[in-house]
Amino acid sequence: xxxxxxxxxxxxxxxxxxxxxxxxxxxxxxxxxxxxxxxxxxxxxxxxxxxxxxxxxxxxxxxxxxxxxxxxxxxxxxxxxxxxxxxxxxxxxxxxxxxxxxxxxxxxxxxxxxxxxxxxxxxxxxxxxxxxxxxxxxxxxxxxxxxxxxxxxxxxxxxxxxxxxxxxxxxxxxxxxxxxxxxxxxxxxxxxxxxxxxxxxxxxxxxxxxxxxxxxxxxxxxxxxxxxxxxxxxxxxxxxxxxxxxxxxxxxxxxxxxxxxxxxxxxxxxxxxxxxxxxxxxxxxxxxxxxxxxxxxxxxxxxxxxxxxxxxxxxxxxxxxxxxxxxxxxxxxxxxx
Length: 337
Prior knowledge:
Elements: E1 2-6, E2 10-16, E3 30-36, H1 38-48, E4 53-60, H2 61-74, E5 78-83, E6 88-94, E7 121-125, H3 133-147, E8 152-156, H4 167-177, E9 182-185, H5 188-196, E10 201-202, H6 206-213, E11 218-219, E12 222-223, H7 225-238, E13 243-246, E14 252-256, E15 259-264, H8 276-290, H9 294-309, H10 319-328, E16 330-333
Parallel strand pairs: 1-4, 1-8, 2-6, 4-5, 8-9, 9-10
Antiparallel strand pairs: 2-3, 6-7, 11-12, 13-14, 14-15, 15-16
């Protein structure tokens, strides 16, 4: 079983409009409302892959109750710890240039997809509810019990208000004590502290890696692969066993104990890259549990990220698109020196 932790879920509300009129009246051509947050997208993707998955997190108020009900209808197994405050919402506006794309979840930074999307997507993300020490302690107790039957854990997304930046580090340490490898996908101080706790894989995107490095990692129209590799090595030096950086249309760059790897997808996929990084995290965890070697693990991660760009909603993908993308991914070892 793969345990997926989503401490800051959301109700994602997406409006598709022909063209945004800021300051004017907009009449959406389509409106979607569904459970979201990076961890929920990871869990949905793993469930669609046929993996045995359990989503864990925090939920409260009417919004949280709605999320739990929707998850129950979707068939994704979940055990959400109740909190007093209401779960957050995110609002996304997708303009006509991104028609047919997604835009459901909290928008990620550059490099979240393993294929390039296009069109303008604007997101408004609430910070999340206040979580008390007692509520987090209750969650931690349930989490420790779940680890007894887990083969891996994915910790994904932002931290809600009230939780310290070291919350993910604490959960990774608990997982390591239970001999359960962890995949971490977050940002900022939570990412840095989490990496120091020794997760099996850390998955930053280009923005997140640049923020930690304190410098630009791009050259011209694309990432400076040597600079990205150096920043990934630095993150490994903090304690992460492997770092997989998602670089948008340039694919994935991995710094591992088995050397450096780069996975490049085929032709860019039209759509919206929001949530594609979550598909990559899901594929990395799935490959870890299946014991895939790094080249195959990255091949599947790049392909699943590309397939998710073309899907109508986050956390979903077409198996046909996935298979097609898989055949087009090129993986190279030690390409970056």
